[in-house]
Amino acid sequence: MDTNQYVAIFGGAAAGSEAAFQLSEKGINVVLFEQNALPYGKIENGLPKWHHKLRDRQEALIDERLNHSHIQFVPAVRLGKDVDIRDVSENWGFSVVLLATGAWKDRPLPVKGIEKFIGREFYYQNALSEWFNNNHDPNFKKYDYHIPDGSIVIGGGLASIDVAKITMIEPVRNALNAKGIPMDALTLEKKGVMPVLEELGLSLEKLGLKRSTLYTRHPIEEMPLTPLGENPTAEELEKAGRVRRNLAEKAMARFGFTILGSRNAVETIVEDGKLTGLVFAKDAETEGGEKTFERVLAPRIISAIGSIPEPIPGLPYAGETYRVKNYETGELEELKNVFALGNAVTGRGNIRHSQSHSRTATGNISMNFMALDDSGYEKLFNAAAESGKQTIQALFGAIDGGARCTLTEIDAINAKVDELQKKAGYEGDYQKWVDAHRPLRLEEMLEHK
């Protein structure tokens, strides 16, 4: 493969860093554009901060991949705002453009009128996760959030379980600290909220606290907490249902929240201009054949129903995801030599699908298990790293068919890249940059107490 090729990649996390590393190992020059200061995506702000050991290992792996002589890193560049996709793909001179922009937009909660309460009585999961992961830092000012006692969560998957845990950890932590009992989120998650209270001779009732509630559209047995193969048998479905209920009950017992299934949010409850609750439709029907409804009041409502790609001007869409011409390579319709990886194609807002699809689109490798904890994620990432050593014929074939860059085009690309790097304050030392911009870590604060 010729080395007079230049590839642009947008997004530096699971799919993007992998693609950049594999290309650079073949001697292909890469410019990796990242919308944030750091390239870690949801490894940084999607994984709750109690996964800090896993987070650090995976971020170190991304650093190792991107700190390469054939890769130029450009932070703080948002596609569709700072640069235009058609301009980049048609005029800059790149051989190929790869999109690994992920799924950062929360899927809208389909309840009329609820959007006006965002950031007030209503939170979305992505912003909440970023706030929770940084709320120990007194200098973090992006979100001024608070999780009051008795909050409710709308969800159903693993991410909503994490959110439900947060809605118990935060009120309990605050209540204990107010009583002069120092407590941090990492301890409460590691030991469990309820075991910690029992150890202290306390309870939710003694602290004057309620349980938060996770409302799911499906029954608990149908929550996607364990994987199922294609066309499962009745026996497999029954077994999966038992396992899922067992997992859910263990989480409820350790953290004190409640899960209520078969409920769908349908209407807001508003009093004096404030969102005070939701009306839920229950699947159970009355004798007359009508659905039953339940009014639920809560001081805070959090939606954790998933993430979708954020709409980017100039890209072709089919609903929530891109219009793809070739799913093997991720080639997009309407744009020449533009390919999508990971969540940009699948619309899945989690790490598992991002790693998996980046290899499916580049090497036909699939991941068919779900990580429930650090050890599960570790197996996933180790398998992903091993599979990354394989040749990625589909993607390399597409790149090999792309245009070759002349020296004049390469110089022009480098000049534009240099201008964007200077605008961001990036001086070319990747490791120095990420070390300087890494957030304050709670575990480090606790170590130095």
Would you give an account of this structure?
It is a single chain. With 449 residues, this protein is α/β, with parallel strands linked by helices. It has two domains: 6-104 and 307-447, NAD(P)-binding Rossmann-like Domain (Rossmann fold, 3-Layer(aba) Sandwich), CATH 3.40.50; 108-303, FAD/NAD(P)-binding domain (3-Layer(bba) Sandwich), CATH 3.50.50. Helix content is 39%, strand content 18%. It is built from 16 helices and 19 strands. The chain has helices at residues 14-25, 42-45, 52-66, 85-91, 125-134, 158-178, 185-191, 193-199, 234-255, 343-346, 351-363, 374-387, 393-400, 407-424, 430-437, 442-447; strands at 6-10, 29-33, 71-74, 96-99, 105-106, 122-124, 152-155, 213-216, 258-260, 263-271, 274-285, 291-297, 301-303, 307-308, 317-318, 321-322, 324-326, 331-332, 338-340. The strands form six sheets. It has a five-stranded parallel sheet, with helices on both faces. Helix 1 (14-25) packs parallel to helix 11, helix 5 (125-134) crosses helix 6 and helix 11 (351-363) runs parallel beside helix 12. The chain is globular, with a radius of gyration of 23 Å. The N and C termini lie far apart (54 Å).
